[in-house]
Amino acid sequence: MKLRAFVGGITVAAGTVACVYSAKAADLPIRPAPAPVAPVAYAPPVYNWSGFYVGGHVGGGFEDSKWGDPFDSAVSDTFNGGGFLGGAQIGANAQFNWLVVGLEGDFSWTSLIKGSGTDSAGDAITTSPQWTSTVTGRIGAAFDRLLVYGKGGVAFADDKSTFTVGGPTYTDTFTRTGWTAGAGLEYALSENWTARVEYDYLGFGSKQLNFTPSVTSNADLNVQEVKAGFDYKFGP
After folding, report:
1. Rounded Cα gap, residues 48 and 186, in angstroms
2. Could you give the angle at the alpha carbon of 68 between the alpha carbons of 182 and 181, nearest 5°?
3. In this structure, what are the phi and psi dihedrals at residue 112, rounded to the nearest 5 degrees?
4. Which pLDDT tens digit goes with each residue over 26-78?
5. pLDDT, tens digit, for every residue of 108-131?
6. What is the largest CA-CA distance in the chain?
7. Which of 99, 76, 61 lies closest to 180, judged by CA?
8. What is the CATH number of the domain that holds 134?
């Protein structure tokens, strides 16, 4: 009997404690739910200009030339002309943070660019670069998908000059070597395709023209080119 009474007392005490705890718990304030966390916005990766590329371009060119008169060394004849050009380029870039450095070669067909004039005797003279080519270093600043760059290096031109005396026309064709400097903007349309616009100045200095053993002249040549084009960059 004593054992039953003892167990019953413990049971009653435990129930009382549970009721008191439940009552106190009910009196506690309800803790508010945590505020929802906003999703993290996705930041697209900065464009990487590193890699090899090939592309093509079209545009316009303007050439000016100054000849020493074939029959009067004290007289100079200056003339100029413009026309369409088109060609291709190949190169590679390496990017270091915002700095982009690279090497590029290009080739342009320029046979429609032609300047013409007359000498002191009224004879017709013309000069026309049949093609131009440059090998340049490039350095630029990248603003994500926009690249602002300058370039400079060596230039080549296939120069065709003619001299018409009465009926006969004499021609002298040779390759000039000079220098070039330019600048441009390039924009990444996708991970692999970019579009560009560029200005280049090509200077070739003065060279001797030999039309016949007795008819020679000295002529310089300078070419300005404005080109727009596309490049395909290999790799990610």
Report:
1. 13
2. 5
3. -85, -5
4. 454 566 666 666 565 555 668 999 999 999 999 999 999 888 877 766 677 78
5. 999 999 888 877 777 888 889 999
6. 149
7. 61
8. 2.40.160.20
The helix (H) or strand (E) run that includes residue 4 is helix 2-27
Whole-model pTM above 0.90?
Answer: no
Whole domain around residue 71: which residue ranges?
Answer: 51-233
Helix, coil or strand: residue 189: coil
**Amino acid of residue 77:** D
* Residue at 102 is within a domain: yes
Token look-up 């270091």 returns 96
pLDDT score recorded for residue 8:
47
* DSSP assignment of 64-103: EEEEEPTT-TT-EEEEEEEEEEEEEEEEEEEEETTEEEEE
